[in-house]
Amino acid sequence: MTSSTSTPSLNEDETRSRVYAIVGAMAPARGATLADDTALIADLAYDSLRLIELTLALEEGFGLGELAQERTATVTTLGDIVRLVTEARRETEAWRETEARQAEAGR
Amino acid sequence: MTERLRILVTGAAGLVGAEVTARLVAAGHQVTALVHNQPVVVRNDGTPLEPDAVTRLSGDVTKPRLGLPEAAYQALAADGLDRIVHCAAITDFGLPDEVYQAVNVDGTVHVLELARAAGVPLVHVGTAYVCGERDGLIRETELDEGQRLANAYEDSKFRAETLVHKAQADGVRAAIVRPSIVVGDERTGVVRDYKNIYVVLKLATEGKVRSIPGQYEARLDLVPVDYVADIITEVTHRFEEAAGRTFHAVGTPLTLRDFSDVMAEYPPFHVPRFVPPTSFDAQRLPRRERAYYERVMTLYESYFRRRMRFDDSHTAGLATRRPPADGQDFLRALIDHCLETGYLGAPPADATEVLARLNITGPDATSAANATGPTASDVNGAGR
């Protein structure tokens, strides 16, 4: 999958560090060490409401479309979020390309 | 009451189960506490029960023989018990249907099997909300009135109670206690964990959800956890009087108007607007509010339309203690406790504030967060 020219793409490391920054800053528990296997609830003290706010922060912070509940429901660690965001970014970019192509074709 | 009974309490580590266990121990009974994920029995006020106060059994009601080793199960079944108090249940909303089936329905099946095998009376803890979406006066003698059940939780508790009735018909002796919405202590407002109604209260008072489909005349019945535990304990003690009957452990119903009035007394609180369900359209909500509405409020929506009232004459006839006389005063005690612990009143920074602090603005960050109406449905398509 090629990235669209209109969207600045983050590489995997950039995605990971931005996810870490957002999840860490939103976490109810302060000062925890962050790693891919850090658990959102057990290690960072997220509860169900704070997880909703985190979903909003990820959507906003990565310019994603809405993350469906079915997808966020299975997320338990930081690593899961990195994977989810990476996937969602690809989908958003693919969708934008299709939109752009359709707009072009419609002209 | 002086007789020392051997009592098995399932769900002994749960909010209601722990309070019941503590009361039975204090009354001098020999309690076997069936626990699952959480091995320690902690009272609602946060103090753990002394480890040697009860016999703890690690089990799982979803499994045959309550997940106990054969020998331990046989020891209970063969003249090891005088009562079973079945408190184990899933009361959280929004979980997969299988979870309610496994814990609330299959769990009750397994408890009934033990009650039958051991020939022991069962006190089954149900919920007043097996009434589903019925309106008007709900009697303790009524169960299946052809009502619509609002969610998998209610459905599972309805089926569990039906199973208890069937077992009674073929010889199991049982009494049923039906609490309404279990909340904090009557006097102190203290509650061990904030669930269900507390979550709704938090979203509403923080202004995360500003309009809710519902009717100001709808009623919510909140009942103090200590009162519920007292009623269950009383029914357990006086089983001979209670056998074959059902007891509503309910509070003083509050209308949504009553709720709004109390919330308005607290300056930092937002007060939600209840709008007629027919003129409410979730798609018109801003993304942020819609996320909270769809992920949380929809689970409780049916409760904001109901006008039921629970009759509790069986309970009034058996127990000396009565529920809080003034529902609004009780609600104030609950809210005051939430303010003291910080659960309400000081929301942490929201997504936008945190992103600003981190200097993060997504490629087109604004569209996702602020979209409403038609724009929102475009965004809907993007992530799927």
Report on the architecture of this protein.
- The complex is a heterodimer of chains A (107) and B (384).
- Chain A is mainly alpha-helical.
- Chain A contains four helices and no strands.
- Helix content of chain A is 59%, strand content 0%.
- The longest helix of chain A is centred in the last third of the chain and has 29 residues, at 78-106.
- Chain A is elongated, with a radius of gyration of 15 Å.
- With 384 residues, chain B is an alpha/beta fold.
- In chain B, α1 packs across α6 and α5 (197-205) runs antiparallel to α9.
- The longest helix of chain B is centred in the N-terminal third of the chain and has 22 residues, at 97-118.
- Chain B is globular.
- In chain B, 46% of the residues are buried.
- The chains are: A mainly alpha (107), B alpha/beta (384).
- At the A-B interface, α1, α2 and α4 of A face α5, α9, α12, α13 and α14 of B.
> Span from first to last CA of chain A?
25 Å
User: CATH top level of the domain at 6-186 and 221-254 and 308-325 in chain B?
Assistant: Alpha Beta
The count of DSSP E runs of length 2 or more, i.e. the number of strands of chain A, is: 0
Strand content of chain B: 5-15%
Give average pLDDT of chain A, whole number: 87
Poorly predicted spans of chain B: 364-384
Report the major sheet of chain B: 7 strands, parallel
Sheet of most strands of chain A = none
What is the level-2 CATH architecture name of chain A? Orthogonal Bundle
Shape of chain A: elongated
Low-confidence stretches of chain A: 1-7
Number of helices of chain A: 4
* Alpha plus pi helix count of chain B: 14
Backbone shape of chain B: globular
